[in-house]
Amino acid sequence: MIVADRKSLQEILAMVQDNKKILIAGCKGCVTVCNVGGLKEVEILASSMKIARKKEGKDIDIDIQVLERQCDTEYVAGISEIVDDYEAVISLACGVGPQFLSEMYKDQIFYPGVNTTFFGGATQHGVWEERCAGCGTCAIHNFGGLCPIARCAKSLMNGPCGGSSNGICEVNKDTECIWDSIVRKKMEAGKLEDLLGVKGLKDWTTARDGGPRRSIREELVQGNI
Amino acid sequence: MLNAIEDGADGVYVAGCLEGECHYIEGNLKAKRKVAYVKKTLSELGIEPERVEMYNLSSAQGARFAEIANEMSDKIRELGPTPIKKNHAA
Question: CA-CA distance, A24 to A113, in Å (whole number)?
Fold first, then answer.
């Protein structure tokens, strides 16, 4: 899923400091799963903002909506009849959400209430870790199912660098050296020779380096499926 | 809890079962974590976190319940009215 962290309350309050009528729009997709932009988090943010404004003796009127997904125009269209009732909208979806909203409702201001961080999963309750960099050319089967593009600080394809020490990456003491894990996994399986082949230069044009990407499924576009 | 503070409550306390004796097994421990989260949120908002507390007692401890109610009331009296109610009225 896409993982995000909520912006600080102070940062969000500063964004809308001049606005009195605000909509907070959550999303039932990834941000609900990573507990940052679902119904519960939207309600907590709305309540916290109301308390902050009341403490300053200022009025604020906040409504909430949680869209099925903010990355699909059919669901974004769901707020078409109310969106103009507000001076500003705070989106608690990933960075895709406020952009889809901005594209559909050109006269409204949409503020991002979260910082979108990475593609990953929960390794324990409350802890998420990056697993995929969306490079567009998946080859994790070559590395024991562990991705060196996303999980090596240098995205190395042919083994660890000199910054690997006792299985830890020099970048951060809490970051495992994924190449250490890849090598150990292959050794345990008796298949270390799988890593002997030198990987050629990676084609990064399928990643962000090739510019913004687009995925077209002709059969869907034509309505055949 | 947040809604109560938002509506002008001077303080809120949550009365859960004794730890290890909750009918919902971990319900009181989850409530304890939620109270801690609300305290953190209030601190961020510049409101005394002591306005929200968690207490644990069984349904057979009526006297203890009254004691806690008095203890909490005294604490809130010391803290004074919520800054929300005061400013909002002004």
Answer: 9
Of all residues in chain A, the percent with pLDDT exceeding 90 is: 96
Nearest chain A residue (CA) to B82: A55
The pLDDT tens digits for A58-117 are 989 999 999 999 999 999 999 999 999 999 999 999 999 999 999 999 999 999 999 999
CATH of domain A2-118: 3.40.50.2300
pLDDT tens, B19-73?
A: 988 888 899 999 999 999 999 999 999 999 999 999 999 989 999 999 999 999 9
pLDDT of res. A26: 98
Identify the contact set of chain A against chain B, taking CB-CB distances under 8 A. 8-10, 44, 47-48, 50-52, 54-57
The residue ranges of every structural domain in chain B are 2-79
Distance, CA of A16 to CA of A131 (rounded, Å): 34
Which residues of A are less than 8 Å from B81 in CB distance? none
pLDDT digits 0-9 by tens, A104-124: 999 999 999 999 999 999 999
SS3 of chain B: helix, strand, coil, percent, to 5: 55, 10, 30
Residue extent(s) of CATH 3.40.50.2300 domains in chain A:
2-118
Q: Give yes or no for residue B90 having a pLDDT over 50.
A: no
Look at A55 and B2 and tell me if their CB atoms are within 8 Å. no
Do residues B84 and B12 touch, judged by C-beta distance below 8 A? no
Parallel, antiparallel, or unpaired for β A2-6 and A88-91? unpaired
The pair of structure tokens assigned to B18 is: 């004794």
Chain A nearest-CA distance from B33, in A, is 13
Q: Which tokens in the block code for residue A126?
A: 């409350």
- Tokens for A90? 């705070």
Which residues in chain B are contacts of A54 at CB distance < 8 A? 6, 84, 87-88
Measured CB to CB, residues of chain B less than 8 Å from chain A are: 2-3, 5-6, 41-42, 44-47, 83-84, 87-88, 90
